[in-house]
Write a structure and sequence with these properties.
Layout: H1 2-26, H2 33-46, H3 58-68, H4 74-102
Helix pairs in contact: 1-2, 1-4, 2-3, 3-4
Length: about 120
């Protein structure tokens, strides 16, 4: 069970790094995947600082500062941060809608569902 959880976590983080790198490539930044790794690590750590709700503003500032070290302009860095945030919200909403469709326990929902 622990190995399965670890593999899922590694896959999730690699997907997050790939998404960051793809967004940066789409905005015209010719960065290596290593830059995306640092961006994800530092960005994730910045979300632990309890200064704002859900790290709003903090994560975007970290994107601008970290990507400035890779000679990425501030508008491109901010645009990438906002796109990543929008993608995160979109996927969370999609997951919520899927969960609503399946019910709390993956069973039937509605009038025909058996009472617990």
């Amino acid at each position: 069970m622990l190995l399965k959880t670890y593999v899922l976590s590694v896959f999730s983080n690699l997907s997050l790094i790939a998404a960051h790198w793809a967004v940066l490539q789409a905005l015209g930044s010719a960065l290596s995947p290593g830059a995306a790794i640092w961006l994800v690590i530092i960005g994730s750590l910045s979300l632990l600082v309890p200064i704002s709700i859900n790290g709003l503003g903090v994560l975007e500032s970290v994107f601008v500062v970290v990507l400035a070290a890779y000679s990425v302009s501030a508008p491109v860095a901010l645009a990438s941060a906002l796109l990543i945030r929008a993608l995160g919200v979109l996927f969370c909403l999609l997951g919520g809608l899927i969960s609503l469709g399946q019910g709390w326990h993956g069973g039937e929902v509605g009038r025909n569902a058996p009472m617990p």
